[in-house]
Target: Triosephosphate isomerase
Amino acid sequence: MRRLLVAGNWKMNASVAMTEHLLSAIRDAEIDTCDVAVFPPFPYLALAHSTIADAPIRLGAQTCSLEQSGAFTGEVAVSMLSEFQVALVLVGHSERRSLYGETDKIVLLKTLRVLEQGMTAVVCIGETLEERQAGNEREVVETQLRLLLDELSDQQWQSVVLAYEPVWAIGTGETATPEQAQAMHRYIRSLLQQRSADIANTTQILYGGSVKAANAAELFSQPDIDGGLVGGASLDANEFLGICRAK
Ligand SMILES: O=C[C@H](O)COP(=O)(O)O
Model:
């Protein structure tokens, strides 16, 4: 049985006050209906770690370096993240792919770095509007997954979470319908099934793209949707908690 995971990706939005406010509210809500994770920007990870203390909230980072240490100005290594009890790292978010040139090869290499450090990689995939309008969404998603399917061992797949995020639904207010999302999640699971039944059964596949408290329950009730990767709505404590409580 796959647990529901609700993950808040704050993107480049935070302050000390906001981090303390949001995380205190999430901590005090004592959510037990799903697993909860938050992905603050790098400078707030230490504060986030101390604010959530021993609460069952998993801490995530929004990206990581391919490198382990050295002269890579501005980069952050996975070993540094693990010192702040970061348990999950986003890899291949569509903004990293489109704005910072994160290719499928880089996504594979970063995923391996994250797994080597004993963390979970949350690998993001999804098609653009043009790709969907051209009817190529399945092909795009399969291509984005191909290297991971071919290169990761069965054991490594145990530490991978997938997030299907149609680019046209990110930050636009236009959510994929539950049927559209379920159809793609089912397809992704069928690709995992080609690797092994165990990987297909155990890998969590999150949906991302304008998830909010008002639409979360319908999305999460789909058989192949195992939670959400939430952007904008994760910046509002009530909205995020509403998503966590959605059933
Ligand atoms: O990582 C989160 C996604 O990009 C979704 O963002 P959004 O909920 O603001 O559409």
Notes: The chain has twelve helices and eight strands.
